[in-house]
């Protein structure tokens, strides 16, 4: 089974691509959804957050008060790191089990939808990094229109992320979203067909013989790690 990492930048259309993949029956494991699930009432994640930041981060119904928590961590990098140390490992474990479930279900491909795929270490652990891309000027226009914000505010949000053109250096493939929705749908269709061809039928053998699947995945990741390192050196030189 191919594990694909899908990422993008703010207002590039990653969520739209993710939804289009789901419509085409491609299993998508959404990191943002999991980040909410791992802090639901009754989870160890929420218990750790309350222990770390106090009961005032809870609403009367026992759910997480995200506004109160945000006020605590917004201007305190150390507290933000403490929160990330709780949430990120829980999300990664949930993603791992999501991949296992996709494999057990016999899927050829699964997609990990991770906004900060490149900023974190997970981009090194997927078969292919796919970037939803649009030029920076279009990205800025879309962000201003979407949030009804002025240029300075939109630029401030964009500058808080790795520039979309810099993310191209890490990507193995890209889905260009500079056009309209119909054009994007056609590109997603083409992308899905490409993935099916790349998966081939070896996924059946991996599914029937788990040790073969594990060994095959390890070899592919090792080879692609070497290839990516070489590619990055060429692009930065």
TrEMBL record:
Presence of keyword tRNA processing: no
Could you mention a single GO BP entry for this protein?
A: coenzyme A biosynthetic process
**Gene Ontology CC terms, in alphabetical order:** cytoplasm
Q: Kindly name one Pfam family recorded for this protein.
A: CoaE
GO molecular function list = ATP binding; dephospho-CoA kinase activity
**What keywords tag this UniProt record?**
ATP-binding, Membrane, Nucleotide-binding, Transmembrane, Transmembrane helix
- Is Ligase a UniProt keyword of this protein? no
Residue stretches spanning the membrane: 201-227
Top-level taxonomic group: Eukaryota
Family classification: Belongs to the CoaE family.
Q: Which NCBIfam families match?
A: dephospho-CoA kinase (TIGR00152)
Task: Specify the protein name.
Answer: CoaE-domain-containing protein
- Please report the organism this UniProt entry assigns to the protein: Lentinula raphanica
